[in-house]
Hints:
It is built from 3 helices and 3 strands, in the order βααββα. The protein is an alpha+beta fold. The chain has one domain. It has a 3-stranded antiparallel sheet with strand order 1-3-2. Mean pLDDT is 79; it is low at 1-10.
Amino acid sequence: MKNTPTTPSTPTxxxxxxxxxxxxxxxxxxxxLVFRLARKGLLTRVVIPGMTKAIGFTEQSVDDFIxxxxxxxxxxxxxxxxQ
Length: 83
């Protein structure tokens, strides 16, 4: 039997953050901003199967977004400008 290493195309375990947790990390910004950023593709939104209206946002996408904004020198009230 040949041992072939496998590399998953996506991580199997990603920590998901609630809308409230994302808002907190964004300095208390609004729920609508969180969803607007997800619609723009700046945050990764995950629907949790088997649960009604249960969604989360990957911690990595939130951290990446915040890092990008920090590198671009964006301030909290102009998150819409971070890309």
